[in-house]
Amino acid sequence: MTNIYWESFKTFFKIGIFTLGGGYAMIPLIEEEVVNKKQWVTKEEMLDLIAIAQSCPGVFAINIATFIGYKLNKTRGAIATTIGTALPSFLIILLIAIFFHQFEDNKVVAAMFRGIRPAVVALIAVPTFNLAKRAQLNIWTVWIPIVSALAIWMLGVSPIWVIIAAGVGGFLWGKFSSRYNGITR
C-alpha cells in the first residue's frame, strides 16, 4: 500500500514540473490525474474546487492543490500537495535566477520564449471553455463572465468587487429562485 502523502506529493510535483503558463494551464493535468486516474475527487467536486480556489487569495494552483490535499488527508495531505505543487516552480525559478544573466541576450532563448507564448494561451483557453461547459453557461447566464471581464478590463473594476458581486448575486438568485419554484432553503 502506497503512502498517500508521498503519492499526492509526487502527483502534484509532476503536475507542477510539466506545466507552463500558471494555474489555469494546470487544470487539465490536475483533472486528468486527480479526477480521471486517481479518482480522489469527482468532476462536480473539481468544478466546485476550481470556483473556491479562484475566489481565495493566493496562487490558484496552490489553492486547488491545498484543497485536494485537505480532502485526501486533512492538514498533512494539504501540506504534501501544496509543497508538491510549489516546489517545481521554486526550483525552476531558482535555476533561472542563477543562470539567466548568462542567457538573457541569447536570440535562441528569446525566440523559444516567443514560441511558448501562443501555447500558453491555448493551455489557458481550453480549460476556460471546458469550465464554461461544465458550469452550464447558457444564453441566460453567459453575460455574467462577459460583463465581469469587460468591467475588469475596460473599467478597471477590481476583481475582488466582481467576486463579491457574483457571490451576493448567486446567493440572492438561489434564495429568490427557490421561492418561485416552491422550494424552501
Structure, explained:
It is a single chain. The protein is mainly α. It contains seven helices and no strands. The chain has helices at 4-17, 23-37, 43-55, 60-103, 107-134, 143-155, 159-180. The chain starts with a helix and ends in a 5-residue tail after the last helix.
Terminus-to-terminus distance: 43 Å
The profile of the biggest β sheet is:
none
Provide the β-strand percentage band.
under 5%
- The Cα radius of gyration reads 19 Å
**Number of alpha- plus pi-helical segments:** 7
Specify the structural class: mainly alpha
Helix content range of the residues, please? over 70%
Low-confidence stretches: none
Draw up the topology in text.
Blueprint: H1 4-17, H2 23-37, H3 43-55, H4 60-103, H5 107-134, H6 143-155, H7 159-180
